[in-house]
Amino acid sequence: MAALWQRLQKQGGIELLIRVVLLLYPFFPVLDWAVQSLTGQGIRLDRQLVNIFIFGLLALALNLQVGYAGLLQLGIAAFFAIGAMTTGVLTVEKYPFQLGFWGAILVAPVMAGAAGLLLGAPTLRLRGDYLAIVTLGFGEVMRIVLLNLENITDGPRGLNPIAEPWLPVFVKDTIGAEKAIYAFALFALVAAVVLLRLLERSRLGRAFVALREDELAAACMGLDPARIKLLAFAGGAALAGLAGALYATNLTTTAEPNTYDFNYSVMVLCCLIIGGLGSLRGALMGALLLMGFDNVVSPLLTRVLQKAIGGDSNFVMASFSNWRWIIFGAALVLMMRLRPEGLWPSRRIAKELHEPPAEVA
Amino acid sequence: MTAPLLEVRKLTLKFGGLTAVSEVDLTVQEGEVAAVIGPNGAGKTSLFNAITGIYEPTSGEVLLGGEDVREPMTRRHLVQQALAGLLLGTMALLATANIDTMWLAVVKNRAEPGFSAGAMAQEAVRYLQALPRIEPRVGRFFVVSGDGKTTLGTAKTRQEALVLRDALPPQPAAATARWLRLLALVVGTAVGVAAARAVWKRTRRTPTSLARRGVARTFQNIRLFHNMTVLENVLVAMDRHLGHTQPWTHPSRRLDTLLPLGLLGMLLALVATLRLGDPAGALPAILLGAFLLGGIAYLVHIGRRGAFSQATLALEAAASDKALELLTFVGLAQNANDLSRNLPYGYQRRLEIARALATQPRLLLLDEPAAGMNPSETVALMHLIRQIRDRGVTVLLIEHHMRVVMGISDRITVLVHGKRIAEGTAEEIRNNPSVIEAYLGTDGEH
């Protein structure tokens, strides 16, 4: 206990608290299960958490592109959609592939990564706003393509049902598919965090920083900007594809392509900006805040609101989720005004943002 | 006699109607310190930019050790161009042939047993040739002509539809559709190859490729990585010499941690599956167990070991040592962990030199290294440049400080209005009337 206290003092309370919560994550379904068997009514926290994990993966993917490599990407939802659709096509019963979840989880990132390369290669020379416009366009085009390739994607209905992942009998009998997805999503998230942390500290991470700071100087030092940017683009897209595969499996459908619209991409970007661009912790925190708000807080508030005005559930203004864009928007404006580096930024990016204007030499 | 280290032949650089550099010749021998001087706007920095691949010269050649600096066409480039063509051609073909209906004809006929990958490929080829195809729609199988315009018959099952299709009198392929698809394929491929060739042409000479060939430079307006530490600045430049290690490769410790835990995962899965009487699920269970437990072991392993393998750490440590040695060489060792933007101006210039040296260049281009330095710093800089030459690095510099230029240069080239007006030793340049005229003007002008 004394040692624990010492660590608490050394590392700061928040850090430790977060570690404890992180360690608890794998046990949430167990907790849920216990509550359910005791009271007969589950709290279903794990259901929400899976969404947050998946969204966290997506935020990490975008962080790789926007935060690390400095490529302003507004079409991440397209790669998410490609991952989901690939999973759908490869697993649904009406198509002959039927690779199942474990096969699809390997193919989906590859497909999304390839799409990332296809988008990245011709847009390498674009920067900032121009790249943002192209990727925004790509995102919208991909949505419309998926909507219109009706024979392949089933258009607005989405491909379903996506079979639950194959599991060994002993796993299936004990924890069930739903909790297995929870566990796998958590595993994927942790794996992504560990690998990205490595990347951050490696020579590649160093190259990313150099490229963000001064591309020309970096090129003159023998770094290959094209290669490094493509790597970030493809890597981020592949991670988004993985998230998409998990999303579709969790939902048992690829959902309507309109789900993967511009708003979705912006939501992910919001996560980064609120949490802190270029920071893993920030991205995850942003995902937790935004998705937590969307999935947990907002339904709760809706209930309260509807009770307050007398239970007319058809009244549009009474649904709290309709207010969320206003709230996110206000949050973004406030963040930009008060703390542009985000709630939990990486030290380096905070410095970059607070850099005094360049002196005239 | 061996070829000079750098040879610039009749290099011209035009920006629209403005000729920045006009037919300049420049030769730098290995081991010497050469200088380019000239009044402001003479095109010195433009010449540097053309040599280091930042600008593509309008005409003229740059040779390094007797070889053209532009990357030659290799088999790899050819393969890349062919692939780009193939990719774009296929995309154009699929777009023209309508991939959506193709899916209907090729993939959606799954219901019949024996519809294998081979059969699917066959069906795809038939579709692309615009031969009659089978489309399953609303519970029935339609036999449709190649262009999709006429229905040739319907059947309840795919088998019947196949029979129906085979029984048809030999149908001519829908000629227009066929030609259109071929056209799309050809045009797409051509455009893809052309685009890839254009990109290749433009990237034959890049700052990256020049840096990799051993040309390093500093910048007139300092371009450090300002938010990185001094040491990191140097390490970035050493990146190329760090080999192929990436963080997720762990050559030293990978197997001995992963293998046992992966095996354990397999074993556990196997035992559990067999005990539960599910022998059919044994193999996938083993794979899954190995993947998950092995994966967790891998993550724990790389997460705990401060993230890097022995080999990577050793490489990084060696690189740090080398970087520190370079920093000591330029006199910045005590600032190694400072942010580079907090350095005084003169130090920043030195750091730029250290960073450039870290790429292990054969030729170092210094763009006004003494700008903004006080006299004592300038003397130290001259000493440093001589030391760099003594390390075996050839130096080419632009400088306005005549004391520096005259003091250390073995050979001086004078540029005025983009043209070379003189070349020679310091003594020759000092006494050259046209140089004096360019700098001071003729008597009549005042």
Computed over alpha carbons, the radius of gyration of chain B is 34 Å
Spans of chain B of at least 5 consecutive residues whose pLDDT stays below 50 are 250-254
Helical proportion of chain A, percent range: over 70%
Q: Report the count of strand segments of chain A.
A: 0
Oligomer: heterodimer
The first-level CATH class name of chain A = Mainly Alpha
Count of strand segments of chain B? 13
Largest sheet strand order of chain B: 9-10-11-3-12-13
Give me the number of helical elements of chain A.
17
What distance separates the N and C termini of chain A? 57 Å
C-alpha end-to-end distance of chain B? 47 Å
Mean pLDDT score of chain B = 85
Global geometry of chain A: globular
Count of individual domains of chain A: 1
Largest sheet of chain A: none
The unreliable regions of chain A are 357-361
The helicity of chain B comes to 40-55%
Beta percentage of chain A is under 5%
Number of helices of chain B: 16
- Strand-pairing-aware structural class of chain A: mainly alpha
And the CATH topology of chain A? Answer: ABC transporter involved in vitamin B12 uptake, BtuC
Walk me through the structure.
- The complex is a heterodimer of chains A (361) and B (446).
- Chain A is mostly helical and 361 residues long.
- Chain A has one domain: Orthogonal Bundle (ABC transporter involved in vitamin B12 uptake, BtuC).
- Chain A is built from 17 helices and no strands.
- Chain B is of the alpha/beta class and 446 residues long.
- Chain B contains 16 helices and 13 strands.
- Chain B has helices spanning 44-51, 75-97, 99-106, 117-128, 158-167, 175-202, 207-212, 230-237, 254-275, 282-304, 310-330, 345-358, 375-390, 402-408, 426-430, 433-440, and strands at 6-15, 18-28, 33-37, 59-64, 67-68, 133-137, 140-144, 151-155, 215-217, 363-367, 394-398, 411-416, 419-424.
- At the A-B interface, helix 8, helix 9, helix 10, helix 11 and helix 12 of A face helix 3, helix 7, helix 8, helix 9 and helix 10 of B.
